[in-house]
């Protein structure tokens, strides 16, 4: 899914990079960071898109000397940066050398471990900030999900849903407000004037009932866990005390928070939806059977990669195979009913 998300975002990314180069060249070195980069096979795809756009824009603007590009890959310290630098970067640089871009300076790549909810770089040091599918994850589970008497307020759920108490919705919104505002303030200090930022966030939409909270697939995980509680697989208290630190904002929330923080102008705020199983034909063997069960297993497999460590810390490793088998069946039924998409927000901003 991440590859499709980046592909859909590419025109906005290209536009932002072109604007950056138009206003901030000549410069000896452009410093660029990808926040929440992870360590999977698509980790370096945003870097490649930026390199291609830089080369074509410098050619179009007839710049005689292309700037050096210094990329920083940011994620939490627990991210597997070793995989990126040992397994992915050698092939990346080999491909870069073969392309022989005529308007491209030298490229350098470094890691910057740490939380993007706080400061990571010196003042006025960054030219371009990119983040894809990271900012909907909160810095912590919101406070206020337990009543004064000690009862869980989001009982039976692991995320926001139709049955969540209004105070739970407020707690999640308040935590996102705090985290996203902190993110904007930190980047405001680190970015130079007229620099650019492009963010892709999993969002919510009231126009599509299945994307009302932007977390339907986590609701299905919660439903699978509830079934296992009912069958006596583990205690109900384990489920009721677990909440995913995930909030999918609406476009209106994003616009309000950016305007209130005041450091950035929104150039574009686009919305689109992609199916849960969008890349199945590309990722599978050519002779694969793409019936609903295969699609359910495909979605369950990538959700396991996303969520397993979080779930294991609460429920233990022993139930994971059964949990994600149940999830694959639920996903298959949703896809058969035409339900199963994620709502995405792409925000392109300029530092004032």
TrEMBL record:
Task: Give GO terms for biological process.
Answer: methylation
- Coiled-coil zones: none
Name the Pfam families for this protein: Methyltransf_7
Q: What are the alphabetically sorted keywords of the record?
A: Magnesium, Metal-binding, Methyltransferase, Transferase
Superkingdom of the organism of origin:
Eukaryota
GO terms assigned for molecular function = metal ion binding; methyltransferase activity
Q: Which SUPFAM superfamilies match?
A: S-adenosyl-L-methionine-dependent methyltransferases (SSF53335)
Descriptive protein name: Uncharacterized protein
């Amino acid at each position: 899914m991440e590859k499709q998300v980046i592909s859909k975002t590419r025109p906005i990314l290209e536009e932002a990079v072109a604007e950056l180069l138009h206003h901030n060249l000549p410069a000896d070195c452009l410093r660029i960071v990808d926040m929440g980069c992870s360590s999977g096979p698509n980790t370096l795809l945003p870097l490649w898109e930026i390199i291609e756009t830089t080369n074509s824009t410098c050619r179009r603007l007839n710049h005689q000397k292309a700037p050096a590009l210094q990329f920083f890959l940011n994620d939490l310290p627990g991210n597997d940066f070793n995989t990126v630098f040992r397994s992915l970067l050698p092939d990346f640089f080999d491909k870069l050398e073969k392309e022989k871009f005529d308007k491209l300076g030298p490229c350098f790549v470094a890691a910057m471990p740490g939380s993007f909810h706080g400061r990571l770089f010196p003042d006025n040091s960054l030219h371009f900030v990119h983040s894809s599918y990271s900012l909907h994850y909160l810095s912590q589970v919101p406070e206020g999900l337990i009543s004064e008497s000690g009862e869980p307020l989001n009982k039976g759920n692991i995320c926001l849903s139709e049955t969540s108490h209004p105070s739970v919705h407020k707690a999640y919104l308040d935590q996102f407000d705090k985290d996203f505002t902190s993110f904007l303030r930190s980047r405001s200090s680190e970015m130079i004037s007229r620099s650019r930022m492009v963010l892709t966030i999993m969002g919510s939409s009231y126009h599509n009932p299945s994307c009302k909270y932007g977390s339907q697939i986590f609701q299905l995980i919660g439903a699978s866990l509830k079934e296992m509680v009912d069958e006596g697989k583990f205690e109900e208290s384990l489920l009721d005390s677990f909440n995913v630190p995930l909030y999918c904002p609406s476009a209106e929330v994003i616009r309000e928070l950016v305007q209130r923080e005041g450091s950035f102008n929104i150039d574009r705020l686009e919305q689109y939806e992609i199916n849960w199983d969008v890349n199945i034909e590309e990722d599978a063997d050519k002779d694969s059977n793409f019936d609903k069960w295969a699609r359910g297993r495909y979605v369950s497999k990538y959700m396991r990669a996303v969520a397993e460590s979080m779930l294991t810390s609460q429920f233990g490793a022993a139930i994971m195979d059964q949990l994600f088998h149940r999830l694959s069946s639920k996903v298959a039924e949703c896809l058969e009913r035409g339900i199963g998409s994620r709502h995405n927000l792409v925000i392109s901003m300029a530092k004032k």
